[in-house]
Design brief:
The complex is a heterodimer. By secondary structure, chain A is mostly helical. Chain A is 58% helix and 0% strand. Chain A has three helices and no strands. In chain A, helix 2 packs antiparallel against helix 3. The longest helix of chain A is centred in the first third of the chain and has 28 residues. The N and C termini of chain A lie far apart (89 Å). Chain B is α/β, with parallel strands linked by helices. In chain B, the strands form two sheets. Chain B has a three-stranded parallel sheet with strand order 1-2-3. In chain B, strands 4-5 form a two-stranded antiparallel ribbon. Chain B contains seven helices and five strands, in the order αααβαβαβαββα. Classes of the chains: A mainly alpha, B alpha/beta.
């Protein structure tokens, strides 16, 4: 059999990754810390009430961010989504309408009726009336 | 540093500069304006940034959508009395050093709408303006000219000594009082520390 090769220094298979990982952190961290140091030393910081304000569109912030939204928005969004998806299916149906078999048309009609039924149910539950 | 000595050195291939000049050179070539247009002058401002006039050549193509990241406010258009408090507040929210270009007749003095009941007669009543450009609206070349004038102003600023600009004087404020939109226009009608009424100046 072949002769035994001299042993290379044992290197962990992940050692390269580790070196690259450290290099990546240094590469990102050094410019950031230099910028921070520069700003600490030289930037003419002049904080103020308006400058430190959260909102930055020229208007003053009003009220609380933790407001409760009406649940009706959620129901409206769901009803909208149903018919949004329906429109997506209706478009190819309309495009291929003249070449469709009776069975395909009936299947589509059932699909439409199911959704209309959902609309009637939502209407009866009073979802469509804004309170 | 002596200008003659500098010229002499440059003939021998030696480039000499000061820290201040280098610093100002960097500052003047990276002035980022605020994304902010008020009226028709804003269209000319947009044209200035586009390929034909290309404000990017002067390092100012990056219009920042937040006052926190902007150095320059181009007041481009008619400032109505309802808008003035917002303009001043945006100016206050910009970090130091900050500069203002009053673009067009309206931003300078109210322009053709000066006699209007709702028009502010010049933004320099509330915030310090560095460069005024006349015109209605000024052409993009005029805005570029104003920009170059601002660059000259920046590169001539001293970082130390008594003549240093406002933003390096720690005792001077960075925020200016925001006017209120009251029942009969803005209250106060002007900031007397910033605005010097030319009529009053003439009268002594």
């Amino acid at each position: 059999m072949g002769k035994i090769l001299p042993m290379a220094p044992v290197e962990h298979p992940w050692a390269t990754i580790l070196v690259l990982l450290i290099a990546a952190f240094v590469f990102g961290g050094v410019p950031l810390s230099l910028a921070w140091l520069w700003a600490k030393l030289y930037s003419p910081a002049k904080p103020g009430i308006q400058k430190n304000a959260t909102y930055e569109c020229g208007l003053e912030a009003k009220g609380d961010a933790w407001v409760q939204l009406d649940v009706s928005y959620y129901l409206y969004a769901i009803v909208f989504l149903i018919f949004d998806v329906e429109a997506v299916f209706l478009l190819p149906f309309a495009a291929a309408f003249s070449g469709l078999s009776l069975a395909a048309c009936l299947a589509m009609l059932v699909f439409l009726l199911l959704l209309v039924e959902g609309l009637i149910w939502a209407c009866q539950k009073g979802v469509l009336t804004w309170r | 540093m002596d200008q003659d000595l500098k010229n002499e050195l440059s003939k021998h291939g030696i480039f000499a500069t000061t820290f201040e000049e280098l610093y100002n050179w960097g500052r003047k070539n990276s002035v980022w304006p605020l994304t902010f247009g008020l009226a028709c002058c804003a269209i000319e401002m947009i044209a200035t940034t586009m390929a034909r006039y290309d404000l990017a050549r002067f390092g100012a193509e990056i219009f920042r959508p937040s006052p926190r990241q902007a150095d320059l406010m181009i007041v481009s258009g008619t400032v109505t009395k309802k808008m003035a408090p917002q303009v001043v507040r945006l100016y206050n929210q910009m970090p130091e050093p900050k500069y203002v270009i009053a673009m067009g007749a309206c931003a300078i003095s109210g322009g053709p709408f000066r006699d209007g009941y709702n028009v502010l007669k010049g933004i320099d009543r509330f915030i310090p303006v560095d460069v005024h450009i006349p015109g209605c609206p000024p052409r993009p070349e005029a805005l570029i000219h104003a920009f170059m004038a601002l660059q000259e102003k920046i590169s001539a600023q001293h970082l130390t000594g008594e003549a240093r600009p406002r933003h390096l004087k720690q005792e001077l404020p960075s925020e200016f009082p925001v006017p209120e939109f009251g029942e009969h226009g803005l209250e106060p009608a002007q900031n007397d520390e910033v605005f010097h009424n030319p009529l009053k100046v003439l009268q002594g």
